[in-house]
Write a structure and sequence with these properties.
By secondary structure, this protein is of the alpha+beta class. The protein has two domains: about 190 residues, Glutamine Phosphoribosylpyrophosphate, subunit 1, domain 1; about 90 residues, Alpha Horseshoe (Serine Threonine Protein Phosphatase 5, Tetratricopeptide repeat), CATH 1.25.40. The chain is built from eleven helices and ten strands. β5 and β6 form a beta hairpin.
């Protein structure tokens, strides 16, 4: 279960029994976290992160103050071991807490209180910490660590593999309900909307990990769309088309991605190639046909009058 508690002592209703991983990618400098629980909206409670500082995971009987306080200490240059020691040392509810901290250099530390609901424990590795409580077996957190170490791919992929391994090893004995994934930039810009590379949550779902993976694919498709939009704005049509096409392959049922792919083809003089795509889009959502003349008038969609007339007849 998941809820919040006071900084000093736990209440009976303040649970966040769950498994999570916080981790660092030395190649990109990215830092992040991933979590699953049988509780509503676990991502809003367990994971706290800031680019340039690190990530904090607070779970079991959660102490939400650990999130902002831990990040503040990391920004002050305090190493994760001392951060964990300071916060748990001042917390009267420490025996039922589980806490993990990683900084922007990949140094990690964790704590599992002696009264956390078994099975409970953690593994701290060179660039990660995996932790769990109220698990069906004591194989969960070792399996998470092994999966993270052995999986190839970017940080998000490796953390998701760790969650999958936890579930395969038994997971939360109550089942599953929500999950979250967070990845922060290795080079902070001071602009949160740029520094949060991935920030997605599944608040209530029968298969939260499967849904989290689906949303990550959608997220990456829209990232490509954003890249395409920037290329389009700069007049680099061929590059824009490449990005739109890649996005469409990741999310083929989305008519907006198909429309902008077609629009880019038309705008670079490849109208005939665009026609079948426009036709599919208009079948899915006729509103795109209605608004196409406005897009032509604004110069966003480039075609001559005859092409526009033909477009409106599709």
């Amino acid at each position: 279960m998941t809820s919040s508690s006071s900084p000093k002592a736990p209440s009976r209703s303040s649970f966040a029994h769950t498994f999570s991983i916080i981790a660092y990618d030395p190649e990109t400098g990215e830092v992040g976290g991933a979590v699953q629980s049988h509780w509503f909206s676990v991502g809003t409670v367990v994971l706290w992160g800031e680019a340039g500082a690190g990530v904090v995971a607070t779970q079991s009987f959660t102490n939400p103050a650990f999130g902002p306080e831990g990040l503040a200490l990391l920004k002050d240059g305090i190493n994760p071991s001392e951060v964990v020691e300071r916060m748990t040392g001042q917390d009267e509810g420490r025996d039922v807490r589980q806490l993990a901290v990683i900084n922007a250099r990949g140094e990690a530390a964790a704590f599992t209180g002696k009264k956390c609901v078994p099975n409970a424990g953690h593994v701290v590795g060179e660039t990660f910490s995996a932790q769990a409580n109220m698990m069906l077996t004591d194989k969960v957190w070792p399996s998470m660590a092994e999966a993270f170490r052995s999986t190839q791919g970017d940080l998000a992929v490796r953390m998701l593999a760790s969650l999958d391994a936890a579930q395969a090893a038994g997971g939360d004995f109550r089942g599953k309900q929500s999950a979250a994934l967070l990845v922060l930039s290795g080079t902070p810009t001071g602009k949160a909307w740029q520094d949060r590379k991935v920030d997605i949550r599944v608040d209530d779902h029968r298969e939260p990990l499967k849904e989290l993976r689906r949303l990550l694919r959608v997220h990456r498709a829209y990232e490509m769309m954003n890249d395409a939009d920037r290329e389009l704005e700069a007049g680099r049509m061929e590059k824009a088309m490449s990005h739109y096409s890649a996005a469409e392959k990741l999310f083929p049922k989305n008519e907006e991605m198909m429309f902008w792919h077609a629009a880019t083809l038309a705008s670079i003089g490849r109208f005939e190639e665009a026609v079948p795509l426009f036709r599919k889009v208009f079948v899915k959502n006729p509103n795109w046909r209605t608004f196409s003349p406005d897009l032509v008038r604004l110069g966003i969609l480039k075609m001559d009058e005859k092409q526009l007339e033909r477009l409106l007849r599709l």
